[in-house]
């Protein structure tokens, strides 16, 4: 299923940046190894872990409506990342999140438009 594939791709790619930000923020941004950026990276990672955990959990449980919500929330995060990349005039940091926002949004929309499964009485 498309939404599950997008969820897995998001968990893997965003998970990489989460772990990188925690272990070596200087790899992601210059000066990231100072105390303040490391603390900020840890706070951001905590939020990312919750969103990514929700994606993984709801995809594994095949809980489509909650998965759609978390996909949409992640799309919102990627849209904000797109704006940040654009204001900093960084092409890769603009196009990457924009592509993910589009994929996440389409995946969420596809789940919301799908009919609910019927349960036997």
TrEMBL record:
Transmembrane segment boundaries: 40-60, 67-86, 92-112
Protein name (record): ABC-type nickel/cobalt efflux system permease component RcnA
Keywords associated with the record: Membrane, Transmembrane, Transmembrane helix
Superkingdom, natural source: Bacteria
């Amino acid at each position: 299923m498309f939404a599950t594939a997008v969820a897995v791709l998001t968990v893997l790619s965003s998970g990489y940046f989460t772990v990188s930000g925690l272990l070596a923020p200087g790899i992601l941004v210059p000066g990231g190894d100072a105390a303040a950026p490391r603390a900020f990276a840890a706070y951001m990672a905590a939020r990312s872990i919750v969103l990514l955990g929700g994606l993984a959990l709801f995809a594994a449980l095949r809980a489509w409506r909650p998965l759609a919500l978390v996909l949409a929330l992640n799309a919102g995060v990627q849209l904000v990342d797109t704006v940040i990349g654009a204001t900093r005039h960084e092409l890769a940091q603009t196009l990457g999140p924009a592509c993910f926002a589009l994929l996440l949004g389409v995946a969420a929309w596809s789940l919301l438009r799908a009919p609910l499964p019927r349960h036997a009485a």
